[in-house]
Amino acid sequence: KARAECVRFNPIEFAEQKIKFPWDNSIFHPLLEWIMTHLQEECVDLRALPLDDEYAYHISNRNNTSVRMGTLLFESEKFRRIRLTHYDGGDMQVLNCLWYPRPQYDAPLLGVNLVSFGSDKKQLCVVDFQPLEETQNESARPLVAIQEKFPALNETITAKFYDQQFFSPYLLLGRFDKISELLSVGCQATELAVKEYMKLVMSLPVDEGINAERRKLRQNDYNKYNAERDPSLGIYEVYFGKSWAKAYINNVKFG
Fold first, then answer.
1. 8 A C-beta contact, residue 111 and residue 127
2. What one-character DSSP code corresponds to residue 77?
3. Cis before 142? omega within 30
4. Of the candidates 67, 21, 63, 83, the residue with the CA atom closest to the CA atom of residue 252
5. Neighbours of 119 (CB within 10 A)
6. Beta carbons of 117 and 123 less than 8 angstroms apart
7. Burial of 152 by CB count in 10 Å (0-12 exposed, 13-18 middle, 19+ buried)?
8. Closest CA to 134 of 100, 169, 110, 159
9. What stretch of H or E contains 96?
């Protein structure tokens, strides 16, 4: 008898069920689909992490505005947690993603934040291999080639929304006047950064012991630091309520 083929986990099919993906009018749908496809290709053992439905897919019609937010959580042998979050508030749309490597791998986190505030407002792209300690800064050097390809992503970080904590010297940061620029430059740069980051983590040897314990604690520090300062809190509170917003940020967004 022919050996039965192992059916691999399909993140796109999972997203269709969990967050009703794809969404109409989503400007980030192609990039989100590309990310999930790339994860499936690179992580043969990719699987979903449990997440309560109320945090996975949430809709609000408060303040005469229809808002929805979907979050997907995955894990694999190399990654203890990969979070993909899409916020759709009509004019304002956000794609916010975070890769946590398992602590036994000496790798930074990958953070992606693409924000469109509307067709007549500023657009924002922030992508970085976020170091947990200074020795990981050089791991982000592949971002330099992406900066050279897209000079618009070489802006200086400002304290208004971000500070220097947990950012590398090679951070990709750009602001744009048009959504088309965000999609052409920001999305292309994000794809290149994800490819380079996955290549980095997949090549690393296991490093157990005291180093892994230290990196585990630093991931906890990262979560606490960012949860206390997350600029999205106000938006979440307005549309989803204070209790939901606090629980989501502390337990899901930075979990």
1. yes
2. S
3. no
4. 83
5. 10
6. yes
7. middle
8. 169
9. strand 92-101
Give per-residue burial for 34-63: e unless 16+ CB within 10 Å, then b.
ebbeebbebbeebebeebeeebbbbebeee
Q: How far is CA 107 from the centre of its chain?
A: 16
> Tens of pLDDT along 166-210?
999 999 999 999 999 999 999 999 999 999 999 999 999 999 899
Q: Mean pLDDT for the chain?
A: 94
Model confidence at 2, pLDDT cuts 50, 70, 90, reads very low
Question: Which residue type occupies 248?
Answer: Y
Cα gap 228→223, rounded to integer Å: 9
Burial class, 181, CB count within 10 angstroms (exposed 0-12 / middle 13-18 / buried 19+): middle
Q: How many whole angstroms separate alpha carbon 68 and alpha carbon 148? A: 36
Torsion of CA 56, 114, 218, 235, to 10 degrees: -60
Question: Rounded mean pLDDT of 207-216?
Answer: 94
Per-residue pLDDT tens over the stretch 90-115: 889 999 999 999 999 999 999 999 99
Residue recorded with tokens 């999205």: 232
> By C-alpha distance, which of 171, 167, 172, 126 is closest to 150?
172
The pLDDT value given to residue 156: 86
Q: N- to C-terminal Cα distance for the chain?
A: 45
Checking if the pLDDT of 160 tops 70, the result is no
